[in-house]
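DM from R.C. (forwarded with permission)

"hey, sorry to bug you on a friday — could you get me a structure for this? deadline for the figure draft is monday and I only need the backbone to look sensible"
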Amino acid sequence: MSVDYALDQYFSVTFSDDKVVAYIQFAKWEKDFACSVEALEQFLRNHQVRYGLQHDTLRRIAGHAVEYQYSRTPIAIGNEPMHGQDGKIVFVIDIGDSTNLKPLEFEDGKVDYKEVLRLNNVKKGQLLATRIAPTKGVPGTSVTGEEIPSKPGKEAHFKVGKNVVVNPEKTAMYAAIDGLLTRTEKGKMNVFPVYEINGDVDYSIGNIDFVGTVVIRGNVLSGFKIKAAGDIRVTGFVEGAELDAEGSIDISGGIIGYNKGYVRAGQNVKSSFIQDGNVIAGASVLVSQSIMHSNIRAVQNIECSGIKGLVVGGTLQAGEKVVARTIGNTMSTATVIEVGVLPELRNELVDLRAQLKLSLESMDKTDKALYLLNQLASSGQLAPDKLALRIKLNATKKSNVAEQEGIKERMLEIEKMLEDTGKARVNVVKTVYGGAKIVIGRYTRFIKDPTQRVSFYYHDGDITMVPLL
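My reply, with the result:
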C-alpha cells in the first residue's frame, strides 16, 4: 500500500527549451519510497505541468518507482507547432540540362545520333509555371497548456524574364511569344524568338526543330535537319541537309546538295550559289552567283543575275519569271526553264499523265480478259468461277472508266491554267546557249544557237523572243 510523501523533496521537474516536453527525475531516493498516481498528478500540476501527461508512465512510477531511480523520464509531451510550408514555383515544362546531351534511344534499342538536342519550344499563351501559395501552419501546445505559435510559410515569387507574363492573380506564368524557353541559374524564365548556334550543325548539335527563327553561325552538314516556324539563316554552307522554314531561308555560303536533301521555305530562299540542290520557295529564289544542275521551284520568281549569274543544267520552275545572266553553256548542257504556272500544278500534270497511262494499260488488260471470258460465255463454256471473275472484271472496268474521266477533267483544268501566261517571262541578261529549253505555260521552245540579251514570253499561240531592253 502506497504512502504519499511530500513529493517536492523527492522529485524535480524540468522542461525542454520549447516546453513541449516535461521531465521528472528523482532528487532524493529512499528504499521504501511509494506514492499514488493522484499525488504525482497533483505534484505535476503544482509545477505547471497541465497538458500531455503520460498516464502510463505515471502509473509505472507509482507502482515501480525503483525502475526510475536514476533516470530522467519524459512525463508530459505537448504538441509541437506545425510550421507552414513555403510557397513554391512548379515548372510545367522540364527544361533539363542542356550540357548533358544524349542521342535519342528508341524502344527497340536503336539510337539516332542526329537527335541529341530537344529544344524547349513553347507557343504564345502556353503555361510555363504555376505558383503554390504558402500554408499558415498549425499552432502547438506546451506541457504548461500555453499555445506555441507556428510560423507561416514564405511566399514564392515568379522570376520573370523576357517575353513571359504573369496573370493578375500571380498564380501562373505564360509565354508571351512563340520561342525557346530557357531558365537562368537564378531561376529567371525567358522565351527567346531566335535560337542561335555558334558553330556547325553536326553530331554535337543534331537535328533542330524550333518554333521561331534559327541562326546557324557555321555550316549545316550532310544528313542533318533544321525545321523552323520562322526564318532560317546560315552563315556558312548547307551540304546535303534538309532545311524547312515557314518563313524565309538565307544561306550566305551556298548550297551543295549532293542530289539529296532539300531547302524549302514558305517565303524566299536566298543563297550565293546552288549546286546539285533541291530548292522550293513559296515566294522567290534569289541567287547571286550560280545555279548548277539543280531542281528549283518558286511560286513567284527565280533570279540569278549577279556578276556571274550562271544557270547550267537541271530544271527551274517559276510561277511568274526567271531572270539569269547566262543560261546553259558552250557544251549545250540540257537546261530547262519553265514559267507561267505554279510548279505544283505543272508537276501535278506530269503525275496525272502517268496515272492516266497506268489506268489505260490496266483497262487494256481488263478488256482482253473480258473478251476471252465473253467468248467462253457465248459458247456455253463459262464455268462458275469464271463467271465470278467476269463480274469482277466488269466492275474493275467501270472503276477504270470513272477514274480516267476524273483524271482527264483535272488535266483539262490545269491545261486551261497553263494558258494564263500573261506575266510569264524568261529574261536573259547576257547569253542563252543551245541545249536550253524554254517552257511557258503549255508551250515549249528549244534553243539551238547562242543568243545574247533576250526576253522570252508567250504571244499569239507561241513563245516569242525579243531583245531585252
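R.C.: lifesaver. The helical segments are 37-46, 55-63, 343-378, 384-419.
me: no worries. Residues 345-419 form one domain.
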